[in-house]
Amino acid sequence: MSLKTLLKEKGYHHIKLGYTKTNHLELVAKINDIEGNFILDTGASSTCVGLEAVGHFELMAEDSDIKAAGAGASNMLTQIAQKNRIEIKGWKKKKIDIVLFDLKHVNEALTNHKAEKVHGIIGADILKKGKAIIDYKNKSLYLK
């Protein structure tokens, strides 16, 4: 029995992943029913959206005490958008808080490598909620 068959029997949703030109896993997700491009980052504690995409996803931004760090930048000011819906290929969760911060440094790195810009990052918070299993060989994410 394949991993895909086994996990489908256990109620997991299968999500096909792609790789960016920078070798990051990428996927399409919907926030509040609006589609966007995301990097899958197991090292990011929170799911994030770039400040420039706040309008795209119709997010209600509030100031936050959280300071973001990572990908060569640290101590960045953030905002938070609370109680959002997220959907990834049929897997859905409500009441998701999303951290909002400047993703320009991430998108510059991607465009410097002729990769597509992203709206945000799917982080460990979503992966935990979905009991995620990542199959790197078959470029697949499974969420329950």
TrEMBL record:
Alphabetized CDD domains for the sequence: retropepsin_like_bacteria
Superkingdom of this protein's organism: Bacteria
Signal peptide limits: none
Gene3D superfamilies assigned: Acid Proteases
Enzyme Commission number(s) of this protein: 3.4.23.-
MF (Gene Ontology): hydrolase activity
InterPro entries assigned: Aspartic_peptidase_AS (IPR001969), Peptidase_aspartic_dom_sf (IPR021109), Retropepsin-like_bacterial (IPR034122)
Record key words, sorted: Hydrolase
The keyword Calcium is assigned to this record: no
Protein name as annotated: Retropepsin-like aspartic protease
Origin species: Christiangramia antarctica
